[in-house]
Amino acid sequence: MFAFIVIVFCSHLLLASANIKPNGTHINHWGFIKLLSRPIDHYEFNVGDNLTLEFFFVGSPPPNVHWFTNMTSILNHDSEDQDSVAMRGYSPYIKNIAAIKSKFHIPIATIHNAGQYSFMVTNGMDNYLNKTFHVTASPRNFTDPSRKIAANQQKTNNTIPYIRTWTHTILAKIGYPAILTCRTNQAPGESIEWTDSGGLDLEYFYNFKMLPSGDLLIRKVFEGYLGSYKCNVQNQYGRDTVEIFLHPSY
């Protein structure tokens, strides 16, 4: 996967220098965004099922993902903290490349979850990618099952924490800052913790700072930072964890 990401990165730098715009992607001379998993235009679910839509992106600078349903924003952390905004506009930071995963997850789907969904991917450098698709409930159980589970849906869907968007792999420039993304569904009472592969809490170290958005800011990347990092979110109802691989580069 890492080798594939590097190949995609190099090919897009060549496209950018030639001022070519690949299908579904907008680029400028300094960055790119590419959708690695191609969504379909229509999804159908059974009422009461677990509904999860997951997508995979790669970009430089590392992109952000914004979700919408019926033209309404869904917990996108649009008002990012100043540290995150400043970092994404910092010129050496553009040399970082990251593969990002993002999912829209509903533990128990009802007919009310049917509708138009879309996501927009941006990286702060005039690069963007967007896609719209439709989600419908299967007509086989369109009414009665939804009434039976409607009372449980609100509690289950809104209380169990999960990670919505996260960095899968990042190629980060040594000597400069990097941001590892970890955005949750903002479940009540959730807490977020960043650890290294050995379970050590990274916030004990000055060079690491968890931002209000949940992202991890690395103030300066060193060669010894090669390896896996974990973002953990939990509350009294459940927990979710993702693993992120950081590859420092010159």
Question: What order do the helices and strands come in, and which of them pair?
Answer:
Layout: H1 2-17, E1 32-35, E2 42-45, E3 51-60, E4 64-69, E5 72-74, H2 82-88, E6 97-106, E7 115-122, E8 128-137, H3 144-159, E9 163-173, E10 178-180, E11 182-184, E12 191-196, E13 208-210, E14 216-218, E15 227-235, E16 238-249
Parallel strand pairs: 2-8, 9-16
Antiparallel strand pairs: 1-3, 3-6, 4-5, 4-7, 6-9, 7-8, 9-11, 10-14, 12-15, 13-14, 15-16
Verbal overview:
The protein has 250 residues and is α+β, with helices and mostly antiparallel strands. The protein has one domain: Immunoglobulins (Immunoglobulin-like). 16% of the residues lie in helices and 42% in strands. The protein is built from 3 helices and 16 strands. The strands form 3 sheets. Strands 1, 3, 6, 9, 11, 12, 15 and 16 form an 8-stranded mixed β-sheet that branches. The longest helix has 16 residues, at 2-17. It is globular, with a radius of gyration of 19 Å.
Oligomer: single chain
The biggest sheet amounts to: 8 strands, mixed
Assigned CATH superfamily: Immunoglobulins
Helix percentage range? 10-25%
Q: What is the overall shape?
A: globular
Number of helices: 3
Topology-level CATH name: Immunoglobulin-like
N/C terminus separation: 20 Å
Radius of gyration: 19 Å
Uncertain residue ranges: 4-29
Class per helix and strand makeup: alpha+beta
Number of strands: 16
Mean pLDDT: 77
| Beta-strand content estimate | 35-45%
The CATH architecture category equals Sandwich
How many domains is the backbone divided into? Answer: 1
Q: Element order, helices and strands? A: HEEEEEHEEEHEEEEEEEE
CATH C-level class: Mainly Beta
